[in-house]
Amino acid sequence: MIILVINCGSSSIKYQLLDMKSDDVYDIMAKGIVEKIGLPEGILTHKPTGKKNLVKELPIPYHNVGMKLVLDALVDPEYGVLKSFDDIEAVGHRIVQGADFFPGSCLVDDEVLRKIEICCDFAPLHNPAHLLGIHAMTAVLPGVPQVVVFDTAFHQTMPDYAYMYALPYEYYTKYHVRRYGAHGTSHNYVSREGARFCGLDINNSKIITCHIGNGSSVSAILNGKCIDTSMGFTPLEGMIMGTRCGNVDCNVIPYIMKKEHLTPDEMTTIMNKKSGFLGLSGTSSDCRDMDEAANAGNPRAKLVLKKLTYDIIKLIGSYVAALNGVDLIVFTAGIGEHNSRLRRRVCENLSYLGVKIDYEANMAFGDETLLSTPDSKVKVALIPTEEELMIARDTMHIVAAMDE
Fold first, then answer.
1. CB neighbour burial string for 179-194, b if at least 16 within 10 angstroms, e if fewer
2. Predicted structure pTM score
3. CA pseudo-torsion sign 240, 209, 347, 197
4. Residue 74: which residues within 8 A CB-CB, separation 6 or more?
5. Which residues 6+ apart lie within 8 Å of 143 measured at CB?
6. Among 114, 18, 12, 32, which Cα is nearest to 72's?
7. Which residues, in sequence order, are CB contacts of 53 under 8 Å at separation 6+?
8. Out of 54, 221, 299, 357, which could bridge 207 as a Cys pair, Cβ 3.0 to 4.6 Å?
9. Which residues are CB-neighbours of 83 under 8 A, at least 6 positions away?
10. Between the CA of residue 42 and those of 37, 170, 290, 330, 359, what are the distances in Å?
11. Beta-carbon contacts of residue 392 (< 8 Å; ≥ 6 apart)
12. Residue 218, class by beta-carbon neighbours within 10 Å (0-12 exposed, 13-18 middle, 19+ buried)?
């Protein structure tokens, strides 16, 4: 089954075209990423199997512009891998927020779209982008089944004392206000793959997964099930991110609104799109730019990187307490997989746990790697996330069940 997987993030579109024979037997026909959406210079990197890569640098102001670049690349006479869109048998989408409407993956229909749209309030940077991806696919492939896979589903195993806020209970019953988390597809994959890679039994394990990218979250996973995660009602909660502020004193929000005469929507935009790396540095939301600026001596870029490191260290520490120990710490996603300095600084501050990092191994760049030394009391690993494969598997099973 030829499946196109679309993974729309807050500032990127990752995609893979896979020919799925079974869960573990498949061919990747093409993959790629659209990066820096909304920044002055966007990038499309298209990697067709057996052909030379295509790289385009151009402004990509919105996700729908990026989606058109992806579709054009797949059927490009020189760089494409499809004769036409008719070859695509199913489309799978990553959806950040499904609230408590969706305990698992499902086929797209009008009711599913309606509930995803309701959840836009819970994930204002993501769900609207996901809907754009679904509608774009519907327009191009009107008869092709589409499946949605929810990041929130993996976190449904959190206990109530972890997901509830200490607000009047009626806000939970009336408005679904609770913690949902995000990046669940990634946390699920890397915890299981990390356990396999390090020789652990996932059903008897304590694992902390650090998904560090433009959006970032850390999860505590006990025996394969999530018991806590750093994102909350929306992907805004938790640590510093590309354009998101992470945790702040709630009273800061009305204080700034009164001082600046801001509406709720304007304040939401500031917290989600003008804060984080961008807000503190004043220059960019991209960690690569922060590294470059910090190396050039920019004090605010250095502040961003120090806060990012500190936030990760605090979250890991809190989850060690929640798990009553830890067997494995996993780094994944764009920054987690590619920033060796960040990993080193985090691990050096975990010496109290008996973490010992292998400095040579830590220079790895995006490959499955054991980062800890043989005598480290806690294993540390770099595990590239494969959200697209997880989405393709669910899509294959759900679409195949339609014919049974």
1. bbbbbbbbbbbbbbbb
2. 0.85
3. negative
4. 4, 17, 30, 80, 81, 82, 85
5. none
6. 32
7. 45, 46, 47, 79
8. 221
9. 75
10. 6, 44, 17, 29, 33
11. 3, 5, 16, 18, 20, 26, 92
12. buried
DSSP code for 153: G
C-alpha separations of 64 from 13, 69, 89, 121, 280 in Å: 10, 9, 22, 20, 29
CA 48 vs CA 18, 84, 254: distances in Å:
11, 15, 49
Which token pair is 270?
């500031």
Helices marked H in 7-164 — which ranges?
Answer: 63-74, 110-118, 127-140, 160-163
Q: How many whole angstroms separate alpha carbon 311 and alpha carbon 346?
A: 10
Asked whether 234 and 122 are in contact (CB, 8 A), the reply is yes
* Residue type at 139 in one-letter notation: A
Mapped onto helix, strand or coil, the DSSP state of residue 295 is: helix
Q: Could you tell me the two tokens for 357?
A: 């990092």
Strand-pair category, 146-150 with 90-95: parallel
Positions annotated as catalytic residues are 151
Q: What tens-digit pLDDT sequence spans the chain (404 residues)?
A: 999 999 887 778 889 999 999 998 999 999 999 998 888 889 999 999 999 999 999 999 888 788 889 989 999 999 999 998 889 999 999 998 898 888 889 999 999 999 999 998 887 778 888 898 898 888 888 889 999 999 899 999 999 999 999 999 999 999 999 999 989 999 999 999 999 999 999 999 999 999 999 999 999 999 999 999 999 998 899 999 999 999 999 999 999 999 999 999 999 999 999 999 999 999 999 999 999 999 999 999 999 999 999 999 999 999 999 999 999 999 999 999 999 999 999 999 999 999 999 999 999 998 999 999 999 999 999 999 988 899 999 999 999 998 76
